[in-house]
Design brief:
heterodimer; A: 256 residues; alpha/beta; Rossmann fold; B: 429 residues; mainly alpha; MetI-like fold; 2 domains; 17 helices; elongated
């Protein structure tokens, strides 16, 4: 099993329903702080649903019901009294398809700090933007054209812009929902490199279809199948010596 | 087709067939476009042909003696005295000066006075009121001709038919020819068409009253239908729970868009005039009725443009910790704005051309006064066109076309505005 000394997130019998259909069954998972955890499994296994539970994005889906506890820093975020706006400043998210706002590169990164009042003046805001873009490895590419629309960048740059936008709010956790599935291998390599940097400061949870990617970037891996958490363990163990046959079958490509 | 490429005779046959089908379809489409353009050209050229002359008028220069004996015998220069003076006498005296042969010939004098507009005496009075020093002087004045003479100059009257079949008598024609050889008959741009309201006399009728009436009405419609429509759309699309009740509202709004406009007129008559007792014939109530009619269009187009905003933008904003309101107003609405503007302006353009509901609000009426506010009785451009088209005088025919040109220009300006707004705010994904 994985070491349990610095747990950031745990779930307690987490079940998710879309109307009648149950998408997650009694998931109990723990995620460590400042490490990268990969969620893998075949399509429709509920890994994205789980990811969206952490920052309550499932609230926006009308017919979605979440039951059970999600404890982040010992607070149950599935409590209706939790303010989702505050929660989401603590948990950033990067989506499958790069989705920059149709605004300038600067405004894309500055939006989060602006709405949360994180900068007292323009100078501070500029500092935050620069720092975030540097951290996302995009600064050198865009520093001369910050006023150009974010949508004018290439796919990989757009995704890094989205990462910069997420980390500009200084979250503690970053959720990534297949962040590289729309990117070419070079852009993917850039993002993976970036994730390696980011994990020093942030807790990262990544959903991926690409098992090589999971093996490369994550410290721990959770394998899901049909809404159930099948196996959770250190990545090298999951990929080389899984405990369960189901995991073995998926990893060796027998189904998925 | 290339025999070498195709592996199979059947495929070759079917591709040939498919290509022919495509060609047929393309030429059909092209034909439709050509027909549409032809109709447009016919419409515009017939409007221009009939209407452009409506923007000119005919003037006849006559020396006018502003006789002090008649205007202000006591030399008071008091406006009240001048106002009371008989400028008809001034007019008659000057005409008789010009045509001494008509002095004892009543019939001839009538024929002569008929070539001038009936408003000539008012023109003379206003000249004196503007400049008192004219009193006692003789001045060459360009008097507006009567509509018949105007039509005669524009060759709209066939003078070859027998005298009894045409509006101008031989005697009038003779005087006209005489004046024409003198070179005092001139063609001028009819600026007063844009300066005055309606009139019984075609040569004096102007469009300003209807133009301002349309503008006031449209301002009311815009000020009400844009915010109400857009906020309704935002609420229904972004905030309202998706249940049977909102579905019911949605269906009703869609149905309202298809309701004939006269029904909205009846509704407005019952509610605004009879129940709330608002004044009739004024742009305020007209605008209220047109708001009822325009709202469904604005709501539907605004909802469509909100729907077209990719949901990933909402998720991106929410994921950053934006509240629902911030996500909607900072990102979704700006992206949807061009569509909202376009929809609103299309609705407004429809409202601009609407007559039926205004008929019931008393706005299809003969109103001479130019409205100065939304509480003044007014008519609107399409109603003015209808009224003029309904008038028997020959002079109103070109006025009708001229008014249509003004309406079409108004529409073109509004639509260009819509295109400009869309371009300006368009977001490329």
């Amino acid at each position: 099993m994985i070491k349990n000394d610095n747990i950031k997130i745990t779930t307690n019998d987490l079940c998710v329903f879309y109307d009648e259909k149950q998408a997650l069954f009694d998931v109990n998972i723990s995620i460590n702080e400042k490490e990268t955890t990969a969620l893998i499994g075949p399509s429709g296994c509920g890994k994205s649903t789980l990811l969206r539970c952490f920052n309550r994005m499932n609230d926006t889906i009308e017919n979605c019901v979440v039951k059970g506890n999600i404890n982040i820093d010992n607070a149950n975020v599935n409590n209706p009294e939790i303010d989702v706006v505050q929660l989401r400043t603590k948990i950033g998210m990067v989506f499958q398809k790069p989705n920059p706002f149709p605004k300038s590169i600067f405004d894309n990164v500055a939006y989060g700090p602006k709405i949360h009042g994180m900068a007292k003046n323009k100078l501070e805001l500029e500092e935050i933007v620069e720092k975030s873009l540097k951290q996302a490895g995009l600064w050198s590419e865009v520093k001369d054209r910050l006023s150009q629309p974010g949508t004018s960048l290439s796919g990989g740059q757009q995704q890094r812009l989205c990462i910069a936008r997420a980390i500009a709010v200084r979250p503690e956790i970053i959720l990534m929902d297949e962040p590289c599935s729309a990117l070419d291998p070079i852009a993917t390599a850039n993002i993976e490199e970036l994730m390696d940097e980011l994990k020093k400061e942030f807790t990262i949870i990544i959903v991926t279809h690409n098992m090589q990617q999971a093996a490369r970037v994550s410290k721990n891996t959770a394998f899901f199948h049909l809404g159930k958490l099948i196996e959770l363990g250190p990545t090298d163990q999951i990929f080389t010596n899984p405990k369960l046959e189901k995991t073995q079958d998926y990893i060796t490509g027998r189904y998925g | 087709m290339n025999r070498i490429l195709s592996k199979n005779q059947n495929i070759e046959n079917s591709t040939n067939k498919r290509h022919r089908k495509e060609k047929r379809f393309k030429s059909l489409c092209l034909g439709a476009v050509i027909v549409a353009i032809l109709f447009l050209i016919i419409l515009l050229s017939s409007l221009a042909y009939k209407g452009l002359s409506g923007f000119t008028k005919t003037t006849i220069q006559i020396p006018i003696y502003f006789n002090e004996e008649i205007i202000d015998p006591e030399n008071t220069r008091d406006i009240a005295v001048i106002n009371k003076a008989s400028f008809r006498k001034i007019f008659k005296q000057s005409l008789l000066q010009k045509f001494p042969e008509a002095k004892d010939n009543r019939k001839m004098y009538r024929n002569i006075s008929k070539i001038f507009s009936r408003g000539s005496t008012y023109l003379l009075k206003n000249m004196v009121l503007d400049d008192i020093s004219l009193i006692g002087k003789t001045i060459n004045v360009d008097l507006i001709s009567s509509s018949t003479i105007d039509q005669l100059r524009k060759n709209n009257i066939n003078i070859k038919v027998p005298e009894s079949d045409r509006p101008v008598s031989d005697a009038t024609l003779k005087i006209y020819d005489q004046l024409n050889t003198e070179g005092v008959i001139k063609k001028r741009l009819n600026f007063s068409f844009f300066k005055y309201g309606d009139s019984r006399n075609p040569e004096e009728a102007g469009i300003l009253g209807a133009l301002l009436g349309s503008m006031f009405t449209l301002i009311i419609t815009l000020l009400l239908s844009f915010p109400i429509g857009v906020l309704t759309a935002i609420y229904l699309e972004e905030f309202a729970p998706k249940n049977k009740f909102t579905y019911f509202i949605e269906i009703n709004i869609n149905n309202l868009a298809a309701v004939p406009s006269i029904v909205f007129g009846l509704l407005g008559l019952a509610i605004f005039l009879n129940f709330f007792g608002l004044p009739r014939s004024v742009p305020l109530t007209g605008g209220l009725v047109l708001t009822l009619m325009t709202l469904p269009t604005v709501i539907i187009s605004s909802r469509a443009s909100l729907k077209a905003v990719p949901p990933t933008i909402r998720e991106a904003a929410l994921g950053l910790g934006a509240s629902k309101l911030q996500a909607v107003f900072n990102h979704v609405v700006p992206s949807a704005a061009p569509g909202m503007f376009t929809g609103t302006i299309i609705g407004m353009a429809r409202a601009l051309g609407e007559t039926a509901p205004l008929l019931l609000m008393g706005m299809v009426a003969f109103i001479v006064e130019v409205p100065t506010s939304i509480f003044d009785p007014a008519t609107v451009l399409p109603a003015q066109i209808y009224l003029w088209a309904d008038s028997p005088e020959r002079g109103f025919v070109e006025k009708t076309s001229a008014a249509i040109i003004v309406l079409v220009l108004f529409l073109i300006i509004m639509n260009s505005l819509a295109i400009w707004l869309r371009r300006k705010f368009e977001v490329r994904w």
